[in-house]
UniProtKB/TrEMBL annotation, chain A:
NCBIfam families: PRK12509.1. Belongs to the CPA3 antiporters (TC 2.A.63) subunit B family. The keyword Ion transport does not apply. It comes from Litchfieldella qijiaojingensis. The keyword Transmembrane helix applies. This is Na(+)/H(+) antiporter subunit B. The chain crosses the membrane at residues 7-29, 35-55, 67-89, 109-135. It is a multi-pass membrane protein. It is found in: Cell membrane. Pfam families: MnhB. Keywords: Cell membrane, Membrane, Transmembrane, Transmembrane helix. It comes from the Bacteria. Residues 8-129 form the Na+/H+ antiporter MnhB subunit-related protein domain. InterPro entries: CPA3_antiporter_subunitB, MnhB.
TrEMBL record, chain B:
Pfam families: Proton_antipo_M (PF00361). This is Cation:proton antiporter. It is found in: Cell membrane; Membrane. InterPro entries: CPA3_Na-H_Antiporter_D, NADH_UbQ_OxRdtase, ND/Mrp_TM. It is a multi-pass membrane protein. Residues 128-415 form the NADH:quinone oxidoreductase/Mrp antiporter transmembrane domain. Keywords: Cell membrane, Membrane, Transmembrane, Transmembrane helix. Belongs to the CPA3 antiporters (TC 2.A.63) subunit D family. PANTHER family: NA(+)_H(+) ANTIPORTER SUBUNIT D1, NADH DEHYDROGENASE.
Length: 142, 506
């Protein structure tokens, strides 16, 4: 269902959204050594969903997200707090970074990455909660 | 490795996250609230016993060594405060099972409560001045949200004053931290203390000291910028008021104690003289404000202000006995004041009002509640043998020993006026005949047995704590004495954080 009424926005939103989401993942993964990271990547992803929401409305966006934005905040915070714990297992102070290399593909996985994913989800969740709240609050019939 | 230093921060964070994940399941949230705050209390007790056994405990977060990383430091004062946070958190969590409506819970009361507790515990345990600012903000964000929970008009009015003055204080705090960093080039409190000793004859240090004093003074609701407290504390749900009354201002007092014993101890004649008179005027203005009030929670709010004065007085006199008195006073006050707010909520639940003139006759219908009110109320006024008597006695004796007669006189006078206020509440709420009910008043819903117990249990528990401190005060006094010793000898703190030998290495 086209809510915005303008064809250009509807079509552009469909095309731009996957690109923006891909870009946000790219920013998230390069964030440890180069400009990027969870916060800015989360904002980019939230921008993608917000664009979709302007074009197709909150109902369609909710259906596409599948989880409530508040749950994203909860999951993100959980990942963030959980990422401080593995160091405990190794008898080091909390938040000490742990690195694991996956042998075959040479990809290095680490607790800072888990933390960044947590930040990503928190930012995405809080911006979407605010935007959805504003768009729903604008209409009385919801 | 000393895990217990980080646990009091991690437990409320984790419980907050879990209750956020289950934000649709009311039962899970309620269970996590009690279990989370209970384990916070247990971890606090573990930390306290561990600190009193091994001395100051340090954890370098992320294994970045001080002064480059953020250190978590638990000395006796910090550990005592964490235990108090646990006690109050647990009591309020139990109490809010009965008093927080479904509507407030749906807006995230429990996750916010855990976040607030995490902020408070973090502020007590951090050894880094900028990290202290961060924990203050965590605490404030949670308290802003809790304060407007429900969104009534009176709440908004109180919240605006609260937010404005607290943001002002945050700005002053942050600029002071920036200037301090420019002066000494470090944010680690132990390192700052070390380097500030080498900066001699610099007026900037005094300026910074006063900036920190103003910033923490606003947070602690000291004279002259205490207006935000009586304007806002009587508006939110009563469990929130009780939580705020017990913990928030005390974080400001704790920060004053920390900063003025560890960092700004070079020129006590200047800074502590200001603190001394600030304390005196705070006591007096708080108690005089209370005499003019006729609303249960507003009277109690003004008394928070006046009691803050006693704690700052302990710091300002700056003798070993005075610091002991200050620490003892904080412990006593946190328990007593929270309990009084819990009782006020109980009265409101029974009669449907906080206005003194619409209450009455409760002694006849609920004699035990009257006794439970009298214990913290008389303790607040300093009647022996309750905890408040010893707290006041130590502070006032320290005042006489240092020959600060003016302020000591104010402290005694304020004790008398506090007694007057408490007796006023007693006479109006419990003693006088119940007022005739008007026709237009809404009927108060009958109170269930289960609800009754959920409200009685924390009140009785806190009253027992008050009695315990009063009748068997020696262990608390010994703890306060040991923590005062640590506070007055900053080299131990500095060595624990900076020294390789005592620092905790994995």
């Amino acid at each position: 269902m086209v809510r915005s009424g303008t064809l250009i926005l509807s079509v552009a939103a469909r095309l731009l959204m996957p690109l923006q989401l891909l870009f946000s993942v790219f920013l998230l993964l390069r964030g440890h050594d180069e400009p990027g990271g969870g916060f800015i990547a989360g904002l980019v992803a939230a921008g993608a969903f917000a664009l979709y929401m302007f074009a197709y409305g909150t109902q369609a966006t909710r259906a596409m997200l599948r989880v409530a934005p508040q749950d994203l905040i909860g999951m993100g915070l959980f990942l963030g707090v959980a990422s401080t714990l593995p160091a405990w297992w190794h008898g080091q102070p909390f938040m000490t970074a742990q690195w694991w290399t996956i042998p075959l593909i040479g990809f290095t996985f680490s607790t800072p990455l888990i933390f960044d994913i947590g930040v990503y989800l928190v930012v995405l969740g809080s911006v979407l909660t605010a935007v959805v709240g504003l768009m729903d609050g604008g209409r009385d019939d919801g | 490795m000393s895990t217990e230093v980080a646990l009091p921060i991690l437990i409320p964070l984790l419980s907050g996250v879990v209750s956020l994940l289950f934000w649709r399941q009311r039962l899970v949230q309620r269970f996590v609230a009690v279990a989370g705050t209970g384990s916070l209390l247990v971890s606090g007790l573990w930390l306290l016993s561990s600190v009193s056994e091994h001395g100051i405990l340090v954890m370098q977060m992320g294994n970045w060594q001080a002064p480059f990383g953020i250190s978590l430091v638990a000395d006796l004062l910090g550990a005592i405060m964490v235990v108090m946070t646990g006690i109050i958190g647990f009591a309020v969590a139990l109490y809010s099972l009965a008093t927080t409506g479904r509507g407030h819970e749906a807006f995230g009361y429990f996750p916010l409560m855990h976040l607030l507790l995490a902020g408070v515990a973090g502020a007590f345990l951090t050894g880094d001045i900028f990290n202290l600012y961060v924990w203050f903000e965590v605490m404030l964000v949670a308290s802003f949200a809790l304060l407007i929970l429900g969104g009534e008009k009176a709440q908004m009015e109180g919240a605006i004053k609260y937010v404005t003055l607290n943001l002002l204080s945050s700005v002053i705090f942050l600029s002071a931290v920036g200037l301090l960093y420019g002066l000494v080039g470090t944010l680690n409190m132990a390192d700052i203390a070390q380097r500030l000793g080498q900066v001699e004859g610099n007026g900037m240090v005094d300026v910074l000291a006063v900036m920190f004093m103003v910033a923490f003074g606003i947070k602690a609701a000291a004279f002259p910028l205490f207006f935000w407290l009586p304007a806002s504390y009587h508006t939110p749900p009563v469990a929130v008021s009780a939580l705020f009354a017990g913990l928030l201002t005390k974080v400001g007092v704790y920060a004053l104690f920390r900063v003025f014993t560890l960092i700004f101890n070079q020129n006590p004649d200047y800074t502590h003289e200001i603190l001394l008179w600030g304390a005196g005027v705070t006591m007096l203005s708080g108690v005089l404000g209370a005499t003019a009030q006729f609303e249960f929670r507003r009277i109690l709010s003004f008394h928070i202000v006046s009691q803050i004065g006693y704690m700052i007085l302990g710091l300002a006199l700056f003798t070993p006995l005075a610091i002991i008195g200050g620490v003892f006073y904080i412990v006593h006050h946190i328990i007593v004041k929270t309990n009084l707010f819990l009782v006020s909520g109980f009265v409101n639940r029974l009669c449907g009002s906080y206005e003194l003139k619409r209450l009455g006759g409760l002694y006849r219908s609920h004699p035990w509640l009257a006794v439970l009110f009298l214990i913290p109320a008389l303790s607040l006024a300093g009647v022996p043998p309750l905890s408040g008597f010893f707290a006041k006695f130590i502070v006032i004796r320290a005042g006489i020993e240092t020959e600060a007669y003016g302020v000591t006189f104010i402290a005694l006078l304020v004790g008398l006026l506090t007694l007057y206020s408490m007796i006023k509440i007693w006479a109006e709420v419990f003693w006088k005949a119940p007022p005739e009910t008007r026709k237009d008043e809404p009927e108060v819903a009958p109170i269930g047995q289960r609800e009754l117990w959920q409200m009685y249990l924390p009140i009785v528990g806190l009253a027992l704590c008050t009695l315990f401190i009063g009748l068997y005060g020696q262990p608390i006094y010994a703890l306060a004495e040991a923590s005062a010793e640590q506070l007055l000898d900053p080299t131990r703190y500095i060595e624990a954080v900076m020294g390789r030998s005592t620092g905790v290495t994995p």
